[in-house]
Amino acid sequence: MVQQVTSGIKISVETVFEGTFYKNYKVHYAFGYKVTIENQSKDAVQLNSRHWRILDALNNMEIIEGEGVIGKKPVIKPGELHTYRSGCLLASPFGAMQGHYNMVNFTTSNEFKVYIPTFKLSAPFALN
């Protein structure tokens, strides 16, 4: 598990290798990840959008941007958590992800970024 705190918002990420499969005559490696967002600040915040950079061992990079996470724009009160699960496909058995969430503080109306720590994606069978 990797963790990082930005502006009182703690991000924790756990990963799992889901398996391999073929799509369009190419092998793909499926990874799942669980993100926990913990509000350790004194103000309620809302996650409005996300920005991900996904990199595999073949130097392929994919940028993902969009509103919310898994169709939601959660409001997280002080001391509360929001957890969700998602996943990605890689063309290699190794890779990494990093990014940030764009959030708004309900007390000040200020928008701010919360950084998601870089986390590794690795298929156990490919490890030596």
From TrEMBL:
One of its GO terms (biological process) is error-free translesion synthesis. Transmembrane segments: none annotated. It comes from the Bacteria. Residues 3-128 form the ApaG domain. Gene3D superfamilies: ApaG domain. InterPro entries: ApaG_domain (IPR007474), ApaG_sf (IPR036767). This is Co2+/Mg2+ efflux protein ApaG. The gene is apaG.
